[in-house]
Write a structure and sequence with these properties.
Blueprint: H1 7-17, H2 22-29, H3 33-40, H4 50-63, H5 68-79, H6 105-108, H7 110-130, H8 135-150, E1 177-183, E2 188-194, E3 199-205, E4 210-215, E5 218-223, E6 229-233, E7 236-240, E8 248-254, E9 260-267
Antiparallel strand pairs: 1-4, 1-6, 2-3, 2-5, 5-8, 6-7, 8-9
Helix pairs in contact: 4-5, 7-8
Length: 268
């Protein structure tokens, strides 16, 4: 549904065609009444940004059973899409080399290796010239010089100490009820409260978004588009809790063995 008068006018017209009040739309979409009125007057400043505005438009359009994509296209044409962050690669980035930088260590060590070998040759030559006697004495001096230059740490017969291996610390999972909500396909409005009715999360999540919330004993999860939300509780994947566009409340609690117990789903 596209209107030359604007996105807000199109939403208002669709609401009027279904005989619904702004309060009824707010109740079903969990979007504030004042914000819906501003949107219908083409004022999207209170949405909190382009991403949230697009999510509100899509949620209201789906609830009114109209196609949201033409409205999203009209909104993008007027207000612009969300800019993509540029990707800057390092100047010396090389995807074929681990770490992204050129390997120069091997070449940097070549002069040091050559100097060490030259030192050994000089010591061996001096031993041959200055030491009287047969070849056995020459060999003994040469071997001593080589051992002094190449492996001074092994003269005492003790092997170099190896660093002790420190085991990696393991982090125990946090206690209580730990819930992961992940949105796929379409945006969904979410409200999560703990056992004392304190709000832990209240947000519209876009496809690909996920949030983790924790409570001591239990929590209540309200979803404005249950078919697009996957819920995991204490490592247990509960999957979607309803159908696309359905408003569902799910209650989860902590069992005696620390597992997650589903208290029941109440579609509205």
């Amino acid at each position: 549904m596209r209107s030359d008068a604007g996105v807000g006018a199109a939403l208002a017209a669709a609401r009027g065609a279904r005989g619904m009040s702004v309060a009824e739309v707010s109740e079903r979409t969990r979007i504030r009444v004042t914000l819906i009125k501003k949107m219908e007057n083409e004022d999207f400043a209170g949405c909190g940004g382009v991403v949230y505005a697009r999510g509100h438009i899509r949620s209201i359009a789906r609830m009114l059973e109209i196609d949201p994509e033409p409205l999203i296209a009209d909104y993008d044409r007027v207000h612009g899409r969300v800019p993509e962050a540029p990707v800057h690669l390092p100047r010396e980035f090389d995807p074929l080399i681990a770490g992204g930088g050129p390997r120069r260590q091997g070449f940097a060590r070549m002069p040091a290796v050559a100097i060490s070998l030259a030192s050994v040759c000089v010591l061996v030559g001096l031993a041959v010239v200055l030491t009287p006697g047969g070849s056995g004495g020459t060999a003994g001096v040469a071997q001593g010089a080589t051992a002094a230059v190449v492996a001074p740490s092994l003269q005492g017969g003790a092997a170099p100490a190896q660093p002790a291996t420190t085991p990696r610390p393991t982090t125990p999972p946090p206690a209580g009820v730990n819930v992961l909500v992940a949105v796929r396909g379409d945006p969904s409005w979410l409200e999560v409260r703990d056992e004392s009715a304190r709000v832990l999360l209240q947000q519209i999540l876009q496809p690909g978004d996920s949030r983790t919330v924790t409570a001591d004993r239990s929590m209540e999860i309200k979803m404005g588009n249950a078919g697009a939300v996957d819920v995991s509780c204490n490592g247990r994947n509960l999957g979607p809790s309803g159908n696309p566009g359905q408003v569902v409340t799910v209650r989860v609690g902590l069992g005696t063995s620390g597992d997650c117990i589903v208290g029941g789903a109440a579609p509205r």
